[in-house]
Amino acid sequence: MVDDTLLESGNQKIEWARNHMPVLSIIRDGFASEKPLKGCRIAMALHVEAKTAVLVETLASGGAEIAITGCNPLSTQDDVAAALDTRDNVSCYAKNDVSKDEYYEAIDRVLDIEPNIIVDDGADIIHKIHTERQNLLPNVIGGCEETTTGVHRLMSMSENNALKIPTIAVNDALTKFLFDNRYGTGQSTWDAINRTTNLLVAGKDVVVAGYGWCGKGVAMYAAGLGANVIVTEVNPVRALEARMDGYRVMTMDEAAELGDIFVTTTGNVSVLTRDHFKLMKDGVILANSGHFNVEMNLEELESMAHSIRKVKSNIKEYNLKTHRINVIADQQTVNLAAGDGHPAEVMDMSFSNQALCVRHLVDNDLDIDVHAVPPEIDTYIAELKLKVLGIEIDELTTEQEKYMREWEHGT
User: Fold this and answer.
1) With left for phi above 0 and alpha for psi between -120 and 50, is residue 91 left, alpha or beta?
2) S-adenosyl-L-homocysteine hydrolase NAD binding domain location, by residue (predicted)?
3) Which residues are annotated as a binding site?
4) Which of 82, 91, 256, 328 could form a disulfide with 287 if both were Cys (CB 3.0 to 4.6 A apart)?
5) Where is the binding site for substrate, in residues?
6) Same domain, 153 and 248
7) Predicted pLDDT at 22
8) Above pLDDT 90, what percent of the chain?
9) Percent of the chain, pLDDT > 70?
10) Does residue 352 fall inside a structural domain?
């Protein structure tokens, strides 16, 4: 039997998030009256916390049967998972702090629903159904992918002719990445680092690896906290953009000696390695804000360490004799493994995209490919968000619309 205190805590968190996600509430009301997902079975792997629960409630209100698990071993909030499992037509298999085997066992249980739709964050369900549960593929209408890393995996699958279902790159919607990836990741990453370390950021040298939209947000919030920001990049255009935004730009080999706090946001493997660890200052702090825990080569760090110990909740110290390196949350996605994830107001738009893209998959017979979010969905969500914020904007006049369609006008 589930602890009533756990359920109460989970329900309180979900209610708080729901009250701060007005766009998704509007969509949920429409789903509840129209039942566009009636008879649909949805398999989900997302960070199971309060905002995710509001998305699940929205899809269930549309008539769907849902099975959900986590997409990261440390990001599940057990009280929210317990509360979500009590919802009608919802089965939740997510638990916090699971082993790799337990993580994939839960994904298998989710797939046992024999889904018509997949909602993924990191593409682990989609990968699993393509490699080990291929008998389920004929039932699948399509999938939606939440994050940059997952979209990269799907694009690779498509390019190698391995993708067998239509998918929508929800991450690439303007009302997702411009806000969620930048403002959501930026704020929640520093919230997690600050609440975990309780150390000052102002005046410190902060190294941000990667200057995509997540890196932009992390750098922006670090600067706002008073840090001296250093950016490392492999993309010349992004590196130049970071410099024009006022940050120092250099290689990681150079930055390794300077940084007090390192945050990885690249989505790639071995961004920090043995060569960097040996150059770092005593007491440096390492955190990962990418989706998978591969950006720091912790196997190399462990092999270099004279001793390893837990020095604070969610902080592990690697003593290299000459200096100590502190890693937050075993380099799992820091804003969720050591915090509460993105603010509800920004996930309001991200998960509205998810809900409407699920409906788009049900209503349309899409080709097998990685599809962009339809522009009309992006525009509709932006319009709703402005409306609930009480913001009005101008409209083009007939003369202006005519001018924009013509090509004859010159100087």
Assistant:
1) beta
2) 181-341
3) 121, 146-149, 176, 180-181, 210-217, 233, 268, 289-291, 335, 342
4) 328
5) 121, 146, 176, 180
6) no
7) 98
8) 98
9) 100
10) yes
